[in-house]
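Lab meeting, action items carried over

1. Structure of the two-component assembly. Owner: GW. Status: complete.
Input record:
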Amino acid sequence: MGEGLVVRPLVYLHPAGGVRPTRVLEKLKPHQPVFPGFDGTPTVAGLNSRKALGKWVGEYIEREIGKPCDVMGCSFGGAVALWLAIQRPELVDHLVLECPAGLQTIDAKLRADPAEFRKALFVHPEKALPVSKTKEVEAENRRMLSHYGAEDGKDQDLLQHLEAIKHRALILHGTEDRIIGRESVQLLKSRLAKSFLVYVWDAAHNIEVDQPERMLELVEGFLERSEAFVVNRAG
Amino acid sequence: MKFSFFHLMPYTDAAASADWPVPNRGFDAEKAHGYYRGYLDAMIHAEDCGFDWVGCNEHHFSPYGLMANCNVIGGALAYATKRIRIAMMGNLVPLNNPVRIAEEYAMLDCISGGRLVAGLMRGIPHEYIAYHINPDESWSRQREAIELILRCWTEPEPFGWQGEHFSFPQISIWPKPLQKPHPPLVISASSIESARFAGEMRATMGMVLISDLAMAKECVAVYREAARKAGWEPKPENILIGMHTVIADTDQQAIAALREAKKYFDQVLMGGPRTAGRLVLQKSRYYQEAANAERMRDRLAKREAATLEQQIEGGMIFCGSPESVVKQIRRVHGELGNGVFNFTMKVGNLPDAVVRRGMELFRDRVHPEVAGLGDG
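Predicted assembly:
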C-alpha cells in the first residue's frame, strides 16, 4: 500500500465525489485518506474549509507515513493539495494536480443540473469502473462542498498564496473539461514557478477514467524522472 | 469579393505515367529551377494584378505539384510582396508534425506582417501513401492536430500535449503569430463531412473540384448549419470556391488553350495520383461514411466525363474572354454566395505566356466588374 512504481510514497486526494476506483489508482497504489464527512465518515468540528483540509492532510502524512510524499489531487482534492503545499511544504515532494478546483468559479448552470454535470465528467463513461455507493452517501458527498465552502469552486485566499508554492508540479487538464475551464489551469500554470501544464486529448474532467494510459504515462514519468520527464526515453 | 491566385507549381515536361509513385528518373533539376523562378515571378505579379491572396499547397511524389513544403514558397512570397495575403492552402495537417506547422505558419505570419491565411488541409488520398500514414486515421489525426496547432498559437504559457497521435511533453513556440488570436483558417470542405468540420472549427470553407453547383450548395448549407450550431455566422468571405480559370482575349482562344492544357493535366499530372487514390479509397476509411466516398467518386467521374463546354456550362471551371468569365463568376457567386474565388490559372501545361495574359485581362477587364460582388 502506498508504494507503486515510484520511489517516494504517494498520497492521493480525492475529488468531491469521494474515493473511487480507477485504473490509474489501481496502478499507482497511493495512500488515499478520506476527507472527514465524505463516503460516510463523520465530519470533524471546526474542519470546514479546503485550507483546513490541507492542514489535516499534513497531519495524516506525519501520522501515517512519517516522511515527505508525492501528492496527487483531483479537482476538489487538487485545491486541498495546493493548500497542503502552502501550509506544510516540507511534507510535499512533487505535486500532481489533476484538473484542480479552487481557482475559478464553476459554471453555476452546470452545477445546478446534476444530469448535465455528470455528463461533463466523462467523454468515455463506459470506461468507468463500477462504484458501489448508496444514494445517501453520494448526496452527503455533494453536501460536503458547501460544508467546506467550496460550492462555487473559487477560493480567493488560495489564489493569493499560490506563488508560495515552489514544488515541482504537473498540472493535467482534459481538452473536453467543461467543469474546470482552460483559463483556470492557465492561471495556475502562470502562478506556480516550477510547474508543467499538459493537456490530455479526448478527456473531460475525469482524466483518470477517460484516458488512464495517457495519464499514467505522464504521472509515472513525472514522479520517476521529475523535470526530465520531458526527455523521450522510449525504446 | 476577394480573389486568390493559386499555383500548383506543376512539372510540365513529364511523360505520362499511371504508376505510383511517379518514377522520377526523368526529373530535370535545371528545368525545375526555371519552373520555380517563373512560377514565383507570376505569384509575386499577382499582387499587381489585383489579387487579394496568393496561394499554394503541399503535394508529394508526382509532377502534379513541386511543393513538398509550400511554406518554403510562402517565405519567398512573404518577403517579396507588400499587400497580398499569403494563403497556404495548405499544409497537410494529418501527415506532418503539427507543432512544426504551427511554427512555420507563425514565421510566415511574422515575416509577412500578419498576412498569412492558414490552410489546414486533410490532403487528398494519395498523400497518405507517400508519407505512410494510415488513411483510416485521417480524420482523427486532422481533428487532434488542428486543436494542437491552435493551442500552440494561443496558449499563454508553455504546455504539454498527451494525445492519441501526437505527444509533446512541453511546447512553447517562437515566434507566435502576429495576427491575434491566430491567423484566419481555411479548411477544405468539398465533402459533406469536411464542410461540417470546417463549420465546427470556425474556419473558412474551401471547395475545389466542383462537379455540379447543386452538390456544392449542399456543402455550403451543411457548413452554415454546423457553424450556427458552433455559435457563429459565416460571412461570404468564409466561403472559398476554387476554380481552374483560363482567361484569354476571346472565348475561342481560351477554350483552345485550356483543351490542350487539360490533356496534360488529366493524362500526365493526374496519372499517378489517380492510381494511388484508387488504392487508398478501396482499402480504407478515408471517408468516414460510405455515402461520402460514393459522392466523391461520383464527383470525380462527373468532372472527367464532362466535355470542356459542359464543364464551363456546369460552373465547374471558368474559361473564356473577360466578358464571359465575368458572367461565369457572377453566376457561381449567385448560386453559392461565396466571398472568395481561388483561381488556378496555371492549368496543366498551359503556357506561362497565356497565364500572364490571363492575369492582365483579369486585372483590366474582369476584376473591375466583379470586385464589388456581394457588397450589397
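2. GW to write a short summary for the group page. Key points so far: Residues 2-370 of chain B form a domain with the TIM Barrel fold (CATH 3.20.20.30). The longest helix of chain B spans residues 251-269.
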